[in-house]
Write a structure and sequence with these properties.
This protein is mainly alpha-helical. It has helices spanning 3-9, 18-32, 41-60, 63-66, 103-123, 127-140, 145-164, 168-181, 186-199, and strands spanning 77-79, 85-87.
């Protein structure tokens, strides 16, 4: 995305101050937070996009935009007589670095909220929705081994459901997807092999 796209996600025009970016981010996070919108996938996607945009703009804004403004009154003058003015040395400035939200913690909370929703979909046998949810989460967290495993299991469960429905070609596709998604999961390989053997099919 272009830099302007990140501003647009936060509802801002490019070139605004970091204070404006931060204010818009806080407002949108409160609006789209998964705890407030537990069953709204669009809100979850918006929450993630807003967080990513804020994180990116933090890294590219000029340093002077991020640093807090100094007080013009930090250097004071002291009149010792009618004709003599002495300037007191400025007190040491203590720079306070703003603490952004812990993005890793936010991602983890979103991850486990999504996992709970995934479990509900699987229990309700809403397999296409479960797979779409797990695929979206893996797209956001591509390096997360647990999320990859969840998606593989969702593919496997859907494949087994298709077997019971006698949709064998489609079942084979999803069982192979399970193996491709989590190729180093030995337990998954053994289970899928058994599924194929029971059907008289080969991997």
């Amino acid at each position: 995305m272009d830099l302007e796209d990140y501003y647009r996600i936060l509802g801002l025009r490019s070139g605004v101050s970091f204070a404006d970016v931060k204010a818009s981010y806080r407002r949108l996070v409160q609006q789209y937070h998964p705890d407030i919108n537990p069953d709204d996938l669009r809100a979850k996607d918006k929450f993630i996009a807003v967080t990513e945009a804020y994180k990116f703009l933090q890294t590219v804004l000029p340093p002077e935009e991020i640093k807090p403004r100094t007080n013009d009154n930090e250097v004071k003058t002291h009149v010792s007589s009618a004709t003599e003015v002495q300037t007191q040395p400025a007190a040491p400035k203590t720079m306070v670095t703003p603490h952004p939200p812990n993005l890793e913690e936010i991602e983890q909370r979103l991850k486990w909220k999504t996992y709970e929703q995934l479990q509900r979909f699987l229990q309700e046998k809403r397999f296409p929705q479960a797979i779409a949810l797990a695929e979206a989460l893996l797209a956001r967290l591509p390096e997360d081994a647990e999320v990859r495993q969840w998606l593989a299991i969702a593919y496997q469960i859907w494949g087994r459901a298709l077997i019971t429905e006698k949709q064998l070609p489609k079942a084979r596709i999803y069982l192979k997807k399970a193996l491709k998604t989590d190729p180093y999961n030995k337990a998954l390989w053994n289970e899928v092999q058994q599924d194929f053997q029971s059907l008289g099919l080969k991997l």
